[in-house]
From TrEMBL:
Lineage, broadest ranks: Bacteria, Bacillati, Actinomycetota, Actinomycetes, Micrococcales
One family name in Pfam for this protein: DegT_DnrJ_EryC1
Protein keywords: Pyridoxal phosphate
Native organism: Falsarthrobacter nasiphocae
Entry similarity comment: Belongs to the DegT/DnrJ/EryC1 family.
Protein name: dTDP-4-amino-4,6-dideoxygalactose transaminase
Superkingdom of origin organism: Bacteria
Record has Plastid as a keyword: no
GO biological process: polysaccharide biosynthetic process
Length: 375
């Protein structure tokens, strides 16, 4: 089965991991700082704190935002549930706002209508790799005293008006799961241009242990001494995996170019087909495409999906609207809240897209889609 996404591991990656295994540091060593520097460079200079997954990155970002019970998070249903579950872990209330079906991203106007004086975070997702309308969310967050969080699990390497993802929001989170744009097997990062948020993020991912005597409340007792002033967790990404990340991130530009070529090839083949809706691109956006989200007639989506899978094409659906999950239903969230997201979901099929996908494989997907859908 041709997968919808997969990793690209080369000999340099393997050598980098082996070198880390042979070194003195399996974790908390120099490879962590090296990878964080490389992420920061891709993210336009904002600081990067590595963690063990994209989910851990979201959890850490909400901790940095000091999210507390009673706070509200205005967010998109068109995402993986981790965007919300990690905020719910702090007792926050999710307020879902609808998407713009052109890109699948949270609609700034819908988000603005959902903001209240309890809104602490506006949590967006760069769906498929396409950056959200960051200037509008930044303005909305500033006006409402909230923080703007960009779940960029899909979009490391993307830019908006020339500004890299990582510099667009107060807090940006990356995932390095194998299907994403670069991988450390499991891994993630929190990126922020704000020193205060970086400090809170680092503290949370390191069990809350404070070792700087200047920041201690009690007298420093000696070289062994540390204090915990707020609880954190152990979300440290090991050197072995950071070494893989540094090797991977060096090829991010080439991966972006190849993903764009594949996207263009799909677009060229499907353009003008009245049975299909293609992914939209806004002016100023230069996405690093993580997904190719094709939309078909909702009534035929299941049959088309099943037939593509029968033919060895590992399509996927991204995403089931978050609040459809029973965990939200049990809290009183009802279907029908965000009609654009529900319609988008009902039509969506993600086609295979990854850097090592060959042109003849792309053509195989195209032929089968057109044969099944009709042109
Ligand atoms: C993958 C993903 C996550 C979670 O990342 P993991 O590394 O799998 O924990 C969060 N949000 C979105 C939008 C994702 O696609």
């Amino acid at each position: 089965m041709l997968p919808y996404g997969r990793q690209d591991i080369d000999e340099a990656d393997i050598e980098a991991v082996v070198a880390a295994l042979r070194s003195d540091w399996l974790t908390t060593g120099p490879e962590v700082a090296r990878f964080e520097k490389a992420i920061s460079e891709v993210a336009g200079g904002a600081s990067a704190t590595t963690v063990t997954s994209g989910t851990a990155a979201l959890h850490t970002a909400y901790a940095a935002a000091d999210l507390a019970p009673g706070d509200e998070v205005v967010t998109t249903p068109m995402t993986f549930v981790a965007t919300q579950s990690t905020a719910c872990a702090f007792g926050a209330k999710m307020v879902f706002a609808d998407i713009d079906p052109f890109t699948g991203n949270l609609d700034p106007e819908a988000a603005a209508a959902a903001v209240t004086d309890k809104t602490r975070v506006i949590a967006t997702v760069d769906y498929a790799g396409h950056p959200v309308k960051a200037p509008e969310f930044q303005k909305l967050a500033a006006e409402s005293g909230a923080l703007f969080l960009e779940d960029a699990a899909h979009s490391i390497g993307s830019t908006l008006n020339g500004v890299p993802v990582g510099q667009l929001a107060d807090l940006t989170t990356f995932s390095f799961f194998p299907t994403k744009n670069l991988t450390t097997a499991e891994g993630g990062a929190v990126v922020t241009p704000r020193a205060d948020l970086e400090k809170r993020a680092r503290n949370f991912k390191g069990l809350g242990m404070i070792r700087d005597p200047k920041e201690m409340r009690a007298e420093d007792e000696g070289g062994w001494f540390y204090e915990v002033q707020e609880f954190g967790l152990n979300y440290r990404l090991p050197d072995v995996l950071c070494a893989l990340g540094t090797s991977q991130i060096a090829r991010l530009g080439a991966a972006k170019a190849r993903r764009q070529e594949i996207h263009d090839r799909y677009n060229a083949a499907f353009k003008g087909n009245e049975n299909l809706t293609l992914p939209g691109v806004e002016q100023g956006a230069e996405p690093m495409w993580h997904l190719y989200p094709l939309r078909v007639e909702a009534a035929r989506r299941r049959a088309i999906f099943d037939e593509l899978r029968n033919r060895g094409i590992g399509v996927q659906v991204n995403y089931i609207p978050s609040y459809w999950h029973p965990v939200f239903h049990d809290m009183g969230y009802k279907r029908g809240m965000c009609p654009n997201a529900e319609e988008f979901y009902a039509q969506e099929i993600s086609l295979p897209l990854f850097a090592t996908l060959a042109d003849d494989q792309v053509d195989f997907v195209i032929e089968n889609v057109l044969e099944i859908v009709g042109s």
